[in-house]
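Shipment paperwork, digital attachment
Item: protein structure file
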Amino acid sequence: MKEYHLQDQEIPEGFQIFEDYLEVAGVSFRKGDATSFAKSGKKWLELERDNGNVHDKNAIKVIGCCKGFFGTKRRFIGYVPKDVAKLVVTNGFWDQVQPRLLKTYIGSGGFVEILFQLLGPKGKKYEYSPAESSSGGHYTEYVERIKQLKAEKKNEEAVKLLLKLVDEIEKEAKSQGEGWGVAPWYYEQLAILYRKEKQYDNEVGILERYQRQAKAPSAIPGKLAERLVKAQELRNKNRA
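Attachment content:
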C-alpha cells in the first residue's frame, strides 16, 4: 500500500523546504506503530526533542498523528535522520522547523517506509545549512544571505561565501555541458565588493574569470566586459 500526501498539506505561508526527501529513521524498530500510522486516515507528523537520549544529544523523535474517535492518536514511529537533527539543533532551528508528510508505504514482509520533508522559515536556509556544510543548498538559495552580509558591511564574509558559490556555479555549468552559462550575478557582486575595498587586482581577476566561462544570452556579459575595462584602468592607475 503506497500513499502520497503532499496534496493534503500546503506549505504554510512564510515557510520553505529545507530538506526535500527524508526517511524516518528507525522505523523497523517501531514497526507496529509505524504500520498503524501508515494505515490510518487523516494523518500528519510532528516532531519532539528526545532530551533523554544518551546516544545522540541532538535526537529528534518523529511522531505520527491521526484523528481518532477520542481525539488525536500520537505514535512514536522513529527519528529525524541523525545528520539532519544535528543541523536543526546546532544551528538553532529546533523551534522553527516542521515536518511535512511525503509518502507512506507498506510492503511485503511487514516492510514500512515513511518519507517526509522538513520545512523552515523562508529565506533562512543559508543559516540552516551554510555553504561550508556538505549539506549546503543550491547556490541560488544564498542570494538573501549575500544581501544581508553586504547590508551589515560584512564584506570579507560576503566575499568568502561568494567565492565558494562561484566554484559551485562553475562546476554546475561544466556538468551541464554546452549551452549552459554561469550565473553572472555572483561574479558581479564580487567585483562590486572588491572595488569598494579598492582591491582592483582582485576585481580584474574575478571579471577575467567570468569572461572565460560559458555565458547565457543576456545584456549582463556586455556590462561586465565594460566593467572589466574600467577595473583594468583603475588597477593600472593605482600601480602608477
